[in-house]
Design goal:
Blueprint (H helix, E strand, L loop, with lengths): L2 H6 L1 H4 L5 H9 L2 E5 L5 H11 L3 E5 L24 H12 L4 E5 L5 H9 L3 E4 L4 H14 L3 E7 L2 E7 L9 H4 L11 H4 L3 H20 L8 E6 L4 E6 L14
Helix pairs in contact: 4-5, 4-10, 6-7
Length: about 250
């Protein structure tokens, strides 16, 4: 690290758990953020400010006026712009020392597998089960830890799926792809603005901890938040040996 970086990240370096060694791990890391909306906004902002050296931001949508109630990565004058490019502009302004790649596309198939394989950690900030399952399959195949968050109405959830651990479940162990789930979206159901900030910020924290190898991650734990009463519920999770996604890997 140079003198400017030592100054920029000094409040991290002062922490015994992080220090210079931990900060250097962050600078050497590559975070893949899929989704630059409500969850992706705080995720990207905190990873960039914390010094993740390389960030790939993937989103095929454009900024809409209705997004601005919660998607703090974007501004009014960027309505109509691709979210990935808008996000890149914001992150470059916050921390010009890191490398931010904006991909205005829907990553799937071989392309998704390629992006995941190149990442140190993947953050799922999407809003539909099909995409979440595709991301999970790619992470299991590549052995890359996945930080997954979700938020709708006034309810949120977050967990870490790190199948590098033999006894850790993947996303499909909890939510089997063959099981039918009701798709709910912000455009029809609404979402409490600060909720995505709470969940997204926690996703960023889990990703930073995974990269630095500090503390205990949310692997094997699912946290549910009822923001109406600000109450958390913790559920222990286990690997499904018959899981169609991670079963063979183990």
């Amino acid at each position: 690290m140079n003198d400017q970086q030592l100054l920029r990240y000094s409040r991290h370096i002062l922490l015994d758990e992080i220090g210079i060694e931990g900060q250097e791990k962050l600078l050497a890391a590559h975070a893949l953020i899929i989704g630059a909306g409500g969850l992706g906004s705080p995720v990207a902002l905190y990873l960039a400010s914390a010094g993740i050296g390389s960030i790939t931001l993937v989103d095929d949508d454009t900024v809409d006026l209705t997004n601005l109630q919660r998607q703090i990565l974007h501004t009014t004058d960027r309505v109509g712009q691709p979210k990935a490019l808008s996000g890149q502009t914001t992150l470059n302004a916050i921390n010009p020392d890191i490398n931010v790649q904006a991909l205005c596309e829907r990553a799937e198939g071989n392309r998704l597998a390629e992006l995941v394989a190149s990442a140190t950690v993947v953050l799922d900030c999407t809003d539909n089960f099909q995409t979440r399952h595709a991301i999970n399959r790619a992470c299991v195949a590549a052995g890359v830890p996945l930080v997954s968050g979700a938020a709708i109405r006034m309810d949120g959830q977050i967990s870490v799926f790190d199948t590098r651990q033999d006894d850790a479940p993947c996303y499909a162990c909890l939510f089997p792809p063959e099981q039918q789930f009701e798709e709910v979206q912000c455009s029809t159901m609404g979402v409490f603005a600060p909720l995505v900030g709470i969940i997204g910020t926690m996703q960023a924290a889990e990703a930073l901890k995974l990269v630095m190898g500090i503390g205990s991650s949310l692997s094997k734990r699912l946290l549910l938040l009822d923001a109406r009463d600000m109450e958390w519920t913790r559920i222990g999770t286990t690997r499904n040996s018959a899981c169609t996604v991670c079963g063979e890997r183990h």
